[in-house]
Amino acid sequence: MKTITLPRPPKVGLVSLGCPKNLVDSERIMTKLRSDGYAMSPDYSGADVVLVNTCGFLDSAKAESLEAIGEAIAENGRVVVTGCMGKEAEIIRERFPQVLAITGAHQYEAVVAAVHEAAPPSASPFTDLVPESGLKLTPRHYSYLKISEGCNHRCAFCIIPQLRGDLVSRRPDAILREAEKLVAAGTKELLVISQDTSAYGLDLRHAAWSWRGHEVRAHMTDLVRELGSLGAWVRLHYVYPYPHVDHVMPLMAEGLLLPYLDIPFQHASPRILRAMKRPANDARVLQRIRQWRAEVPDLAIRSSFVVGFPGETEEDFRYLLGWLEEAQLDRVGAFRFEPVEGASANALPDQVPDEVKHDRFERVMELSARISAAKLEAKIGKTLDVLIDAADVGTGGATGRSKADAPEIDGEVHLRDAAGFKPGDIVRARVEDSDAHDLYAVPV
Ligand code: SF4
Description:
The protein has helices at residues 20-35, 59-75, 89-95, 108-118, 160-164, 172-184, 220-228, 249-254, 270-276, 285-295, 314-327, 354-377, and strands at residues 11-16, 39-41, 49-54, 79-83, 101-102, 142-146, 148-149, 168-169, 189-193, 208-211, 214-217, 233-236, 260-262, 300-307, 331-336, 383-392, 397-401, 413-415, 426-434, 439-443.
């Protein structure tokens, strides 16, 4: 019998930098390339072409992106660049004239076309079929779900709107279809991401689309209610405290959504928030947090803060510390203000000296570690659900996360005597100990 020898599929290496949103883009690009017959290469040497998906959010991220491009050129030589830094093609071309092509963020067709040109696809697209959920770079049991792109705000320290444009929301039916496929393929946790999750659907005037026999509006509350019915954990990121956020509390209380909110407050001092041009800058936010916690007692709130923004006085900074004491947030990340090329904040007077920024950063981290430690200690003796991320066969232990912990940015739960559990399992466990960031527990 004559057998057909399939041609070797061309191999693509991938370096994905930056935030989870960029990772979602990388996943989309790789899904398309896989369906076009490409294989992935785990290393530079086996790749016919290397794709570098860059981040251009901060100057330090740009430097990291340039370094990654340089490394890919040195190790492989055939490099296509995409992502946020694609907007700054001249800088890349000047440093690395040998780069084969440069495309910007979300130009999926352009980057796929550039890869096709650099390493033409093999004649048989049957060699590597895409799994139902698309080819994922994150572990199978959790998935990022991007609901919109771009942002209508113009925060003084941020250049995302320049890089990615104004808000463009995806249709709710398209998001729900993707989410359904991910859950069918084994996803246990959907992480909803965008630049501004609360603004979802504004550009679509919150129009309704038909989904499984009923109508779903392009609105955050409608969308997350539907996502919550799919049977996976649903975690909301990048939520601004617009008034309608109050309406997701009943969904959390019902168990449709995880009792978790990631709200990037960035500061608390009204003066600095105004200077930052932050959205939903509401002085009554502490009162609302109290109200949310009354409705959802186990609500975990994570946030990030910028210290040393131009004009931030010691008084503004103390205001922030006092606010944090009151707010008792569960997880806090802090950043020292860094001028990003193109951001309007760079031109503001009264830039804060580096040593002052450093000192404030240390103080804010110290306070948030103390609050986090006390909150975690209060969980000792309680029983909670833990989603297993990794099992350690050697020790019989496992590492996972509770409903209060997002992957990569929050804490972990370390389980003892957890032999037999595998990533994606959800286990009831009793908390035995804690430290500033993590919990230690045993399955019950
Ligand atoms: S809300 Fe502000 S910080 Fe966030 S992407 Fe929009 S402009 Fe940037």
